[in-house]
Amino acid sequence: MIRRRVLLASASNIAGKLVAIAAVFALMPFLLHRLGDVQYGLWILIGSTVNYGTLLDLGICDAVTKHVAEYHARGDFERTNGIIAAALALYTGLGLVALVLTGALAPAFPAIFAIPPSEHDTAVALGLMLGVQLAISIPCAVFAAVLRGLQRYGLLNALTSIGQLVSAAITVVIVLSGGSVIEVVAANVLLSVAGYAMTMVCIRRVAPELRFGWHRPRRDDVRRIAVFSLSMFAIQAASHLQLRTDEIVIGTFLSAGIVAPYAMARRLSLLPQVLCDQFLKIVFPLSSQLNAENDVKRLRSLYLIGTRLTLIVLIPVTGTLVMLAGPILTLWAGTDYGHYAPIVVILALAIAIDTTQWPAGLILMGTARHHRLAAAAPPRPPS
Question: Whole-angstrom Cα distance, residue 192 to residue 189?
């Protein structure tokens, strides 16, 4: 049963991720050549900086996934709804904090980074709009967390894929019409709001017993979330420092124009990790469910299957990148980018080593035994 559930969820996740990979790999060189190294690099740079605001999640999203999987498996809908209400209340306050922080920080971006004077206004506008998007995404992260807790990956991937395809199509239309990066980002903010609304409607249809609201959360629900999420926050912070700081360092000490080619090389090196993540996503909520059912035998089976699948994907995909990084970059982005191949090789090898530890780490998280893991703070799959 474990093998079947993992494989079915993996098939759904892989199908959804292939859509995302196709959209990203098609859009990146298109946007790079249409917008130019400076504007596209500026988008990546400001986005990487604002993305640090996702740390305001504080691990709450994972706590929601874990407790929804556990309580829903037991049929305890009252506790499930209590966890959702507590998370929404906490997230709303954190979203407002994110909005205030980005609004205060955005005007300082031109002074912080090596941005050409002609792009100062663009940098500030990007910071403000991405801050609004961040503030909206924090409370709305509850919807995806609930779907992961319910293990409705087919629905979640379908909604995500539709949103990505619509976003890609609108982005192409705007750029071909002569639009700037500002217009592209503004359109994507509006699309993300529509996507969150659609996700909430779908959850109400598949799980009508669940309730979403901002009523006063119970103290014990807040405490349950906090006990689990604090260690998750330490893990997330370490992951951000390791995986999302490079562009900021490059933009600060070199120039925004160099950020774009580095970001493309890094994106390519993440491919093995992204593929592994598609079957590992189910490990966290499924391990929480099995732990609630006190099924140790199937927990062991889940660990073995997850580790084997990880190695099956990592070894050939990482090996291919190491051997063919230069030709792949040249084919993807053009001859000017082939000499960034050593970056792909170094990052791909490091990421592969880290990813082998994910199955064990995710099971520890799902069984709420991740507190010691937070002291080592390894990277983890993106939510």
Answer: 5
Q: Residue 240: its pLDDT value, please?
A: 64
Q: Round to whole Å and give the CA distance between 266 and 251.
A: 15
Residue 277's H or E segment, with its range, is: helix 271-280
**Tens of pLDDT along 117-153?**
877 888 888 889 898 988 888 888 888 888 888 888 7
Residue 182 lies in a domain: yes
Measured in whole angstroms, how far is the alpha carbon of residue 121 from the centre of its chain?
28
- Provide the domain limits for residue 299: 2-376
- CB–CB of 137/57 below 8 Å? no
Q: Rounded to whole angstroms, how far apart are CA atoms 274 and 261?
A: 20
The pLDDT score that the predictor gives to residue 379 is: 45
Position 383 scores a pLDDT of 44
Number of independent structural domains in the chain: 1
Rounded to an integer, what is the distance from CA 180 to the centroid of its chain?
25
The reply to whether 383 falls in a domain is no
Inside any domain, residue 168: yes
Average pLDDT of the chain is 80
Q: What is the mean pLDDT of residues 344-363?
A: 85
How many other C-beta atoms can be found within 10 angstroms of the C-beta atom of residue 214?
Answer: 11
C-alpha dihedral sign at 123, 124, 125, 127 = positive
Decide if 170 contacts 195 (C-beta within 8 A).
no
Closest CA to 360 of 274, 256, 273, 283: 283
